[in-house]
Structure prediction request, 361 residues.
Amino acid sequence: MKKIAICLPSFNECKNIQFVTKVINEGLKKYNKNFECYIVNADNNSPDNTNKLFNQVETCCEKVSLISYLEGKGENLINFFNFCKNYQIDYAITIDSDVVSIEIEWIDKFLKELIDNNFDYVTPIYQRSRYEGSTTNHFTFPAVYALCHSFIRQPISGDFGFSRRFINLITRQKINSEIKKYGIDIYMTLTACFGNLKIKQIMLGSKLHNSSFYKIKDMFKQVLQSFIKTVKCKLYKLDQYKNQEKIYLKTCSLLPNRDFKHKEFAKKEYKKAKAYFNKQGIKITHKNIEDLWIKNFALLIKKIKQNLLDEKFLEDFEQLFYARSTSFWLQAEKISAQKAEEIIICQAIKIFKEVNYENNN
Prediction:
């Protein structure tokens, strides 16, 4: 009998864990084709009783608790992948345990692509707040496009589907400390790309979950380090990607709501980033920040390939990312969601061109 496992990686998610578990259970009851199913809570030993509340939910299939005493979302997902390998799981899905907009149809959409259409790695396209997803919009989305020539709008998202081929591939890889934290998603996506697996994107509507903009610095630093180390390990793979997948505005990934609850935080962080570069004689403005970001993005890729990265460049690159992200937030408040999405798409195209121009010179 074929096996399905759905994972809820968590840390202190007592408020939402039962809700999302119930939705997943209903999705499996409605759409499961008589496969053996597991709902897995991979938890970082949450002190708020997340796992206890998870186990209180009545489900149609077996519940499994994977408790780690180490920190990090990546730690939880690696534990889940090892569980999948040991239990010979055929199809797996991960869902963020803090998502409040999940619908039972999500389960159907993932399972259709994995089971019926034989895809190995399924990623979402959904609408998010224009003030969320900064690491996605400005870094991982254009990075994957520039390196792998693949349009993957949400290379880091929390909600993915996997085949056994992907599970077998990722459990053979060496894992570093950054991957065991927020760096896990970009690592998974690049592993799927470099492994030449079949990748599919699915529409999931809007995604509403806990705000992440206050975690932007820790998150970006870990994603950046995971990206660098993954690319370094796979440099020999980069020349395989010769055919550019056309990138265009397939759908608007930003919600129309312009509610800007953290505007003062954005202004403060933008001002701090500007001051950082002013000390170096570099003037940052809303007009020149995109060009500076694009050029330094290409330089990052070049330095990775030539093994020339140094701490000063990485510190500057991180500060430039904060400046780019907060500048975009302040700009996006005044424009439509469609226009804001166009800015993100056009920036990715420019980064692709700059990176590949640098690679050929």
Summary: The first helix runs from residue 17 to 31.
